[in-house]
Amino acid sequence: MGKCLILIFFSLIICLSQTEGYDPLDPNGNITIKWDIMQWNNDRYDAKVSIFNFQLFRHVERPGWTLRWTWRGDEVIWSMSGAEATEQGNCTRFRGEIPHSCEKEPVIIDLLPDSPYSIQVANCCKGGVLSSMMQDPGKYGAVFLMNVGIASNAYANGTNTTMPVNFTLGVPGYTCGKPSKVPPSRFNVDQGRRRMQALYTWNVTCSYSQFRALPAPTCCVSLSSFYNDTIVPCPQCSCSCQGLPGTTCSKPGEPPPLLQLPHNDEEALPALVRCSWHMCPIRVHWHVKLSYKEYWRVKITITNLNIVRNFSQWNLVVLHPSLRSVSQVFSFNYKPLNQYGHINDTGMFWGIKYYNDMLLQAGEAGNVQTEMLLHKDKEMFTFKEGWAFPRKVSFNGEECVMPSPDQYPRLPNNGDSILPATLKYMILYKLTLFIFL
Hints:
The chain is mainly β.
């Protein structure tokens, strides 16, 4: 009986951790929906709805967010700006002025950037895309306004208003909680000389879980070093296995089955990858390139093996104790993620705008790479036992599959000696073939 209780206890812990989606690299990350009631007018009220991505490195890509909720009463949306409902619904009970949407469970989508200015509002119209806070702080939020009609007079008083329920974001992996009433929001007007506030404010918090979002990993890591001619590939079947039911891949020289892919820009493209040992859309390669007297050098290459999808505004998060000693990063933007005070062992890399912020689909140009110079910290630096390789790697917020530590390239017995130049060139040649073939 005792063993059964222990098993049940650990099962509950696992289920709760998957549901909550806690990420130790971003412990406070979430997407918050803020619902502000700005004013009342008889049986109608004006609401300002804001969506904020309070996540350090995880962003919302196209086709973007799709906000849904369920009205508790017979509410209707009379008008909207900054977003729109996908369905108007049955509005036959109204005469004259017709509401924007009469749906009990409206589906709201963001407007496109080229929408008419007459229906735009500040911080709207990004096509549902939300940047992460670190990557582009000016684009991590979305806003829309709407005029809501209360069909029942019982809720015509602001103190008796009820919030909608059952909020969803329409983005895989996110689960939204119940609305929580918070102190009214405040807004600066007249160039900050006057402050106004909402009548009432509610927050809805949505958390992310990779277990809910994806049935399998989407990236893997391979390793190599200048001091060992072994190239450690991604683990076999990291993301899938060739030959499994429902698994498809494109072999070299074969055209992809384009007719089976969605042709609507608003639809998410399914992953169609190059046939490989690991079957992952993304491969991250970490190469320990050189060792100097006071510094050591690492080369990072991100390869897109998805033949139908580009990755815009991509980012890479790496956990390694030597990141506290980064001296210079070439070709990528870099910023440390200091979430635990003095512990500075995690950093975020992303592309330089208009240079390599777009990771193109599989092909000759389907990779981005950088080199990083790190100072040798005398307290901990070593090439022994695979210390020079990362502890954890995430691409676009999704954790990548790492090789087993016992497979890491090891120092040779005479590891302190300088390797011959011919051996270095041979290793570099093999590495080049591995990355680009």
